[in-house]
Amino acid sequence: MLKITHLSKTYKGGKKAVDDLTLTVESGEIFGFIGHNGAGKTTTIKSVVGILDFDRGSIEIDGHSVKDDPMACKSITAYIPDNPDLYDHLTGIQYLGFVGDVFGVEGQLRRQRIAQYGDAFELTANLGDPVSSYSHGMKQKLALISALLHAPKLLVLDEPFVGLDPKASHTLKQIMAELCAQGSAIFFSTHVLEVAEKLCDRIGIIKEGRLVVSGPTHEVIGQSSLEDVFLELIDHE
Ligand SMILES: Nc1ncnc2c1ncn2[C@@H]1O[C@H](COP(=O)(O)OP(=O)(O)OP(=O)(O)O)[C@@H](O)[C@H]1O
Fold first, then answer.
1. Residue whose CA is closest, atom 11 of ligand 1?
2. Distance from the CA of 43 to the center of ligand 1, in angstroms?
3. Which of 60, 152, 196, 233 is most buried, judged by most C-beta within 10 A?
4. Per residue of the chain (237 residues), what is the pLDDT tens digit?
5. 108 Cα to the center of ligand 1, angstroms
6. Atom of ligand 1 nearest to the CA of 209
7. Can you say whether the dihedral through the CA atoms of 93, 96, 100, 106 is positive or negative?
8. Which domains does the chain have, with CATH numbers?
């Protein structure tokens, strides 16, 4: 579903943020992308979702090139940044209506999904309120509901668990598993290694722009824990 091949990105000023990175995420898989601050996770994610141009390599989503066929990629992808910027002047339901229109989600299905995910994230009662009145966590929940509205084939999340309360985190984990069981793929970054260890089918560890480890979670961890593997790699490699 997601194929990143030899991706490299150098920012103006000369910082090489991603260096020859290759990875794939298959349908039905949850891929956890781990790395210390400044390792290159967000740069990779922004390249995948088409909001950051890259210098070398290729990215394909469901066989479509992100550079050559961006609309085909975007129509089947949902992306939530680490700090979602929503339209404050809209109400929650107006925002979801707007996103539903952009992705062409028809009325009945739209209502059903808004009810399903609104209830799951306990936001239904607040959907009539302006987004400007939402707390940080409520905005995150609204962003998540909007991302799920068109049942994306690829869900890309940057630090999705930061700011969510324990119940919402649990709900999100359940929904991620359900989405994958239905054949979608999920690519997400996190610093919460316990979550990654339990939730992910595959793990990739990025250090200074290079993917230093990638594979099935049980192979990456072995007899150890993800925290031990991560600290070992970050300190010694
Ligand atoms: N717009 C930019 N211009 C110049 N350098 C940048 C820019 N954005 C990021 N960088 C640099 O690129 C490197 C990778 O940054 P990136 O945001 O991808 O890291 P990250 O792994 O997502 O970090 P974090 O966990 O802190 O969010 C860092 O050294 C950062 O300073």
1. 17
2. 6
3. 196
4. 999 999 999 999 898 999 999 999 999 999 999 999 999 999 999 999 999 999 999 999 999 999 999 999 999 999 999 888 899 999 999 999 999 999 999 999 999 999 999 999 999 999 999 999 999 999 999 999 999 999 999 999 999 999 899 999 999 999 999 999 999 999 999 999 999 999 999 999 999 999 999 999 999 998 889 999 999 888 775
5. 41
6. 14
7. negative
8. 2-76+152-236 (3.40.50.300), 85-151 (no CATH)
35 CA → ligand 1 middle, Å:
11
How remote is the CA of residue 41 from the centroid of ligand 1, in Å? 8
Q: Using CA positions, which residue lies closest to atom 24 of ligand 1?
A: 37
